[in-house]
TrEMBL record:
Segments forming domain Methyltransferase: 73-220
GO MF annotation: an example: arsenite methyltransferase activity
Gene Ontology biological process: methylation
Family: Belongs to the methyltransferase superfamily. Arsenite methyltransferase family.
EC number: 2.1.1.137
Protein name: Arsenite methyltransferase
PANTHER family: ARSENITE METHYLTRANSFERASE
Assigned keywords, A-Z: Methyltransferase, S-adenosyl-L-methionine, Transferase
Enzymatic reactions: arsenic triglutathione + [thioredoxin]-dithiol + S-adenosyl-L-methionine + 2 H2O = methylarsonous acid + [thioredoxin]-disulfide + 3 glutathione + S-adenosyl-L-homocysteine + H(+); arsenic triglutathione + 2 [thioredoxin]-dithiol + 2 S-adenosyl-L-methionine + H2O = dimethylarsinous acid + 2 [thioredoxin]-disulfide + 3 glutathione + 2 S-adenosyl-L-homocysteine + 2 H(+); arsenic triglutathione + 3 [thioredoxin]-dithiol + 3 S-adenosyl-L-methionine = trimethylarsine + 3 [thioredoxin]-disulfide + 3 glutathione + 3 S-adenosyl-L-homocysteine + 3 H(+)
Top-level class of the enzyme under EC nomenclature: transferase
Length: 281
């Protein structure tokens, strides 16, 4: 079994390659993994093109939702985008927060950071910056963000609990997040669960939906709401790289579901975080 370090290096390698691929290749695959499908349609992500702030150069077709559309970003907010890629969600967040706000994108792939910075310079955005770093240990001080967004990234991180703890640390009291991610309902076949390429493609790194929501609760968040959920149908020609025809048929009939969810949650204010009378000072 791969170690967490090996999985992180795998993701970094694959997403460095993805930064150089066309959007069409990324959209026809599992979050940009190399197992492209002949069924050319967007497997995971939703259409961003109608949202204010959309920039085609920054859209690599890697997402699985529209978290910025649900994030309730206000003018002047400080927004952090986890796994910012080429900058797509960061630029849409900037349209919401305006010139008086600030957007910080965090990504651990140098090629993505370079691409995002190049896009920001083209757009002359001076209040959008991109920092290289792990989202399990964000290069950001505590209590600085009003809103955190992320699109199809946490499923790539082995230590998901650590990411939610970091999100809690970085958000201001009363701040909130809106995150789109891949989750499961039922067990994936072993051939998919152990496939490295499908890990880099967002599917086999996913965990059970209830476990995912449990990590959010355990980190201390409140007002947890699923804002959107949709099924993800992986085409047979992709599954055929990992499963036999008989295994694919069994998987289709098993009731196992792969879903994209967009989840909202809030960091309590200091008063709301008190566990009992007299616990706050």
């Amino acid at each position: 079994m791969s170690t967490d370090k090996e999985l992180r290096e795998l993701v970094k390698q694959k997403y460095s390659e993805i930064a150089l691929q066309s959007k069409e290749n990324n959209q026809a695959s599992c979050c940009g993994s190399s197992c492209c499908s002949t069924e050319v349609y967007n497997i995971m992500s939703d259409d961003y093109s109608e949202l204010e702030g959309y920039n085609a150069d920054a859209d690599l077709g890697l997402g699985c939702g529209l978290p910025t559309a649900f994030a309730a970003i206000k003018k002047g907010d400080v927004v952090i985008d986890l796994g910012s890629g080429a900058g797509n969600d960061a630029f849409i967040a900037r349209a919401e927060t305006g010139e008086t706000g600030k957007v910080i994108g965090i990504d651990f792939t140098p090629a993505m950071i370079d691409k995002a910075r190049e896009n920001a310079e083209k757009l002359s955005f001076h209040n959008v910056e991109f920092r290289q770093g792990d989202i399990e240990a964000m290069p950001v001080s505590a209590n600085v963000a009003d809103v955190i967004v992320s699109n199809c990234v946490l499923n790539l991180v082995p230590n998901k609990a650590g990411v939610f703890e970091e999100i809690f640390r970085v958000l201001k009291p009363g701040g909130h997040f809106s995150i789109s991610d891949i989750v499961l309902e039922g067990e994936l076949p072993a051939g998919i669960q152990s496939a490295a390429e499908m890990y880099a493609g967002c599917v086999s790194g996913a965990i059970q939906k209830q476990d995912y929501l449990g990590l959010i609760d355990a980190a201390g968040f409140t007002a947890v709401v699923i804002q959107k959920q949709k099924p993800i149908i992986v085409p047979d020609d992709i599954l055929g790289n990992y499963l036999s025809a008989e295994q694919i048929a069994a998987f289709r009939s098993s009731g196992t579901g792969i879903h994209s969810i967009t989840v909202y949650a809030e960091k309590p204010t200091e008063a709301a975080a008190c566990c009992a009378p007299g616990c706050c000072s």
